[in-house]
């Protein structure tokens, strides 16, 4: 782990160039270029507003404010898409760059790093769009909550409504993004190496990511899972801890819960350490497998 970390620090300039190149390549030939990174989240927000609010009248609780559910879903999907996209691309990154790994002295450990960095930058632009939506629904056009009616009608065990807003908790966003990056890179190291040993890994990962997405409360409230007796799925799901922490900070302006952030930090660094050691131990065999 120490050796691979030292190597990454030595390749800072290369990492920066690769991230910039990847971000440019996303929209090469497009007339709007990088601006699509902003347009996509805006379009998603309007789609979620129409489908889940106007058509399905989806609510996280009986007291959900206007715009709350679409913003909750938008934040969740932004985080998940960044994670899933990176994992999918990272799993196959060694195979796709076989010419570099076989013919020149190339630091292959930078491949999962730059893919993660590129996705996080793209995700950040989407988060800024989500924050604009939160400002609108929390401060410009807020939905007042009748607290007397809430306390009079809320059932025992039913979650109370939460007020949308922003606060000093936004300062924790860089920390959460860093932990997300560490977790994603560690998992990427493991899967990229396994994909060289067993090429079916790439296809299995695609199926697993779909299952993992629906096991994570992105489009439905977590309370429904616990009410059905499947709370263990949430208790063992690091992406649930992470996405719920992002929602606390971005949508409600509260500090992320330590019972989520501490376990996620442990899992993130543990995954990175395991992935880095596995990747480093097998690195000399990569040209033969390719």
Record keyword descriptors for this entry.
290 residues; mainly alpha; 15 helices; 0% strand; elongated
What would you say this structure looks like, in words?
It is a single chain. The chain is mainly alpha-helical and 290 residues long. The protein has one domain (2-8, 20-147, 164-289). Helix content is 72%, strand content 0%. The chain is built from 15 helices and no strands. The two termini are 24 Å apart. The relative contact order is 0.14.
Detail the topology: elements first, then pairings:
Layout: H1 2-10, H2 12-26, H3 36-55, H4 68-91, H5 93-96, H6 98-103, H7 110-140, H8 147-153, H9 173-197, H10 201-214, H11 222-227, H12 231-235, H13 238-250, H14 258-282, H15 286-289
Helix pairs in contact: 2-7, 3-4, 3-7, 4-7, 4-9, 4-10, 4-13, 7-9, 9-14, 13-14
- The low-confidence parts are none
Q: What share of residues are in beta strands?
A: under 5%
> What's the number of structural domains?
1
Q: Specify the biggest β-sheet.
A: none
| Number of separate strands | 0
Radius of gyration: 21 Å
Shape: elongated
Helix content: over 70%
Report the order of strands and helices: HHHHHHHHHHHHHHH
> What is the mean predicted local confidence, pLDDT?
83
Tell me briefly what this model is.
The chain is an all-alpha fold and 290 residues long.
């Amino acid at each position: 782990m120490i050796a691979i970390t030292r190597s990454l620090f030595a390749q800072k300039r290369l990492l920066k160039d690769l991230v910039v190149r990847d971000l440019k390549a996303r929209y090469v030939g497009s007339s709007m270029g990088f601006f699509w990174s902003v347009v996509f989240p805006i379009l998603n927000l309007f789609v979620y507003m129409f489908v889940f609010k106007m058509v399905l009248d989806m609510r996280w609780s009986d007291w959900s404010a206007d715009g709350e559910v679409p913003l909750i879903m938008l934040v969740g999907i932004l985080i998940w898409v960044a994670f899933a996209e990176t994992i999918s691309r990272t799993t196959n990154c060694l195979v796709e760059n076989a010419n570099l790994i076989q013919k020149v002295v190339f630091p292959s450990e930078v491949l999962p790093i730059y893919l993660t960095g590129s996705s996080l930058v793209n995700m950040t632009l989407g988060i800024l769009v989500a924050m604009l939506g939160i400002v609108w629904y929390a401060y410009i056009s807020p939905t007042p909550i009748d607290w007397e009616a809430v306390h009079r009608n809320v059932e025992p065990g039913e979650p109370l409504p939460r007020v949308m807003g922003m606060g000093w908790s936004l300062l924790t966003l860089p920390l959460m993004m860093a932990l997300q990056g560490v977790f994603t890179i560690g998992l990427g190291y493991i899967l990229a190496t396994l994909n060289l040993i067993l090429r079916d890994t790439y296809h299995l990962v695609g199926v697993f990511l779909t299952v993992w997405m629906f096991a994570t409360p992105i489009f439905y409230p977590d309370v429904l899972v616990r009410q059905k007796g499947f709370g263990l799925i949430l208790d063992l799901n690091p992406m649930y801890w992470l996405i719920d922490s992002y929602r606390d900070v971005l949508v409600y302006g509260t500090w992320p819960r330590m019972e989520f952030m501490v376990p996620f930090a442990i899992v993130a660094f543990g995954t990175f350490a395991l992935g880095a050691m596995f990747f480093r131990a097998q690195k000399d065999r990569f040209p033969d497998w390719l």
